[in-house]
Amino acid sequence: MNRTQGKITGGATGSYDPKIPEELRVRDGLPNFFAKCAAGGPVRIAYLGGSITAANGWRPKSFAWFKAQYPNTEFVEINAAISGTGSDYGACRLAGDVLAKDPDLVFMEHRVNGGGGYEAKSAEGIVRQIWKKNPRTDICLVYTISLGMLKDIQAGKTPWFGAIMETVANAYGIPSIDLGVEIAKREKAGELIFKASAPVEGKLVFSADGTHPGNDGHDVYRDVIARSMLTMKPEGKPAEHTIITPLEAKCWETAMLIPATNVVLSAGWTPLDTAKDAVYREDFGRTHAMLRGAVKCDKAGETITVKWNGTTIGFSDIPQGSGMEVEVTIDNAATPLVIKRPQTEKIKRYARFFYLPEQAPGEHTAVLRIKELPEGISSYAGQILIVGTVLP
After folding, report:
1. How many Å apart are CA 301 and CA 86, to the nearest integer?
2. How far is residue 106's CA from residue 241's CA, in Å, rounded to a whole number?
3. CATH classification of 2-241, choosing from 3.40.50.1110, 3.30.70.360, 3.40.50.300, 3.40.50.1820?
4. CA 390, CA 392: separation in Å to the nearest integer?
């Protein structure tokens, strides 16, 4: 490891092959975090990820392990997990959901959910946002596993987004823990059934659906994290992390969320009663986490206008039925983009989000217009995703 003027830098830590999975890569370790643990805290641990992290699983189990290791230390958990979201949405909501709560350690769990087509840019953007806010906050990448990754890991290949995140980890000296390596090892040895709907005698059943671990699977995740933490504990000395030149010129270090009420809405949009609105409450936990400050309209033709200086913009909503369509015009283009918003979940109406094509850096205006809205259905608009800064 290279250390210059008290700064932690990547340097020699970049020698790991990002295409090969390993359970633990220490790199620059978590020295700031462990120093605060030893000092008695308070120590704030943030868990940023999707449904696997949101579950009553490895997150609370690992948090309980930290408390048992340091019984005289005050720990604060920051649960920043939202199901179905990856590093792209994570980068946009990082400031409010994580950084505003002053974490000492941030776990990033994004390999399963991906990054919405902006994997490298968003993963690096999260790192840079964290260290711009506090260069002494430590970061640890955590890779969970789904069934589609199993054979690759058993063949010694890192799943595609894992390789992207490992490239970021190499450059910034960030430790990574691949929970899938132990699962793949046990499955290959015949000790574990990856997917089963019922118990199997003499075997550990990892999951019922091929993605979300059961309690025993989460126990394995916790144990891997525990032994990785014990390995990393003596590594490094507390220091500020150095923010290097970006790997991605358009990385999402300026990503943010803006409530729909903070941009220009046409007259037909109205705030909704989140305590009573039936559609909003169908999957309330995820919907409220994504659509905070939502508005709705009941007829086609209503618009949302956003001016920003940057590259990328996205919108969150609740798709319903099969006939919803929006059209978006960027910078007065002659032909708007037409985007269908069909309901993809049969049981619940589920909060979603979508992006417009990346633009050249600079000032832009996007006008979203409700193009098709079937009778009896309302259109919901929540937080707007911005890479850049909002203009008045």
Report:
1. 32
2. 14
3. 3.40.50.1110
4. 7
Can you give the residue ranges of every domain in the chain? Answer: 2-241, 255-390
Cβ within 8 Å of residue 212, ≥6 positions away:
51, 52, 55
Q: Which residue, among 152, 151, 158, has the nearest Cα to 17 in the 3D structure?
A: 158
Indicate the SS3 state at residue 76: strand
| Residue 150 near residue 130, CB atoms below 8 Å | no
Class of residue 278 by CB neighbours under 10 A (exposed 0-12, middle 13-18, buried 19+): exposed
255-390 in CATH: which number? 2.60.120.260
**pLDDT tens digits in sequence order for the chain, 392 residues long:** 333 333 334 444 457 999 999 999 999 999 999 999 999 989 999 999 999 999 999 999 999 999 999 999 999 999 999 999 999 999 999 999 999 999 999 999 999 999 999 999 999 999 999 999 999 999 999 999 999 999 999 999 999 999 999 999 999 999 999 999 999 999 999 999 999 999 999 999 999 999 999 999 999 999 999 999 999 999 999 999 999 999 999 999 999 999 999 999 999 999 999 999 999 999 999 999 999 889 999 999 999 999 999 999 999 999 999 999 999 999 999 999 999 999 988 888 889 999 999 999 999 999 999 999 999 999 999 999 999 999 99
- Asked if residue 374 has a cis previous peptide bond (ω within 30° of 0), the answer is no
Tokens 């840019």, located at residue? 121
3-class DSSP assignment, residue 156: coil
List phi, psi (to 5°) of 229. -65, -40
DSSP 269-315: -EE--TTT-HHHHTTHHHHHHHHTT-EEESSTT-EEEEEEEEEEEEE
Q: Which helix (H) or strand (E) holds 205?
A: strand 204-207
Nearest to 315 by CA among 323, 301, 303, 331: 303
In this structure, the chain runs to a length of 392
**Strand-pair partners of 204:** 192
What gap in Å lies between CA 146 and CA 18, rounded to an integer?
19
pTM above 0.90, yes or no: yes
